[in-house]
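Bench log. Compound arrived from synthesis this morning; before running ITC I wanted a structural hypothesis for how phenylalanine sits in the protein. Inputs:
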Amino acid sequence: MSPKRENFNSKLGLLLAIVGSAVGLGNMWRFPYLLGSNGGSAFLIIYLVLVFILCTPITLAEYYVGRKTKKDCFRAFDDILKPGPGRIFGSILCFSAFFTISYYIVVGGWIISYFFGCFNFNTFFSADNIKHFENVAMGMGGTPASALQSTITAILFLAISAVVLCGGVVKGIEKFSKITMPVLFFLILFVAIYSCSLDGAEEGIKYLLKPDFSKVTGSTFSNALGQAFMSLSLGCGTLMTYASYSQKDSNSVRTSLLTIILDSCFAIISGLAIIPAVFAFGMVPGQGPELLFNTLPRIFTLMKGGSLVAVLFFFTVFIAALSSAISLMEVLISVVTGSGKVSRGRAVLYVTAATIITGTLCCLSFGPLNGIKLPGGTIFDFFNITSTNIFMTLGSLGLVLLVGWKLGKKDFKSVLADKTPLGSSDVFFNIMFFIVRWVAPIVIVTIMVLGFINN
Ligand code: PHE
């Protein structure tokens, strides 16, 4: 017997939940740096072309499977492939989500430390103390207190996600997204306007947006594609899971396109919130953790009203990361409840418990477990690299092959068609299906190969 599944209550709730999954650390710490260092708007053009031409069809393909089967990602392929091989493929998506959430909560924990650090701003973030603060927050301090702090904050981050998830699809995820997503957009917009109005910000805006085609190489394309996949949460089953909760009359094509547009806007605005401020204070933008957890705090201490901007900024990053974490956990929770034998509350507990184990190992790999080397580096690196380079890519590849070759164009269209101009256009669906069937598999295999060569 298949269990009763909840549906999102409104189209807006569904859209905001999917956008919440997409908008996350990928937009806020990866994109701004990639944009600046890969030729500014030259990179932006390549990114947007890839996102709209290649990722729209892949997004639709994931949405299609969720909406068609109305099952969790482990069981969605039972009817398409028969349970045996179907579940092998389904487990790739589950591993993808599980590995991603395991390292994502570690960074979530750092954000919590920084958010609280903002309240003792002048002491913690001063030029003399920031390195120490960073080491302790990230569990690299070499002391039990530092290892404990990073582990506890990661577990706290996970626990907050779990509390939201206990509320279920409508009262948990939908309600959370409806409240936080608008706040998120206003906050990042405010920080971006402030940052761009600082003296000397023009240099940063130029760095971000001035096209420099001499920086475009083969790896620019693989960087842009990798970023697009990560940013749109493809290959983790999140979109499939959320789409499986969609109501009959929700507009699939409109929801997918709006997600892509909003996610891209958010990434660009994040760039404008971060990089101009970095240049205004004569610093150099670094990548990833260093940019967010070292350069920016130092800038906030130099900025007028910096403590308030810091609080708003870290709160924004926190919400963005939290909504992504929620979507990743929901993939696993829907799988556990999918048998019909486990209640939602218990499923949240099981998934949280399992993630505490792997998440703690990832945390401790910055401190006491630093010596353990796995393929890719430390335990944290292993989870990060395996999920992005292997599971997510395999997940997307399998998905486009199944949709393109096993399921027909007619069904693809009839499940996704809606009343919007594009959603009712045959030409649009022909192009989308063609890309899913022919172009996407070739491009995904190419990125995989490039990824392996570059590592
Ligand atoms: N899209 C999220 C980000 O940009 C990350 C994520 C990947 C979330 C896969 C869910 C699934 O940070």
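What the model suggests: The mean pLDDT is 93. The chain is about 75% helix and 0% strand.
ITC booked for Thursday regardless.
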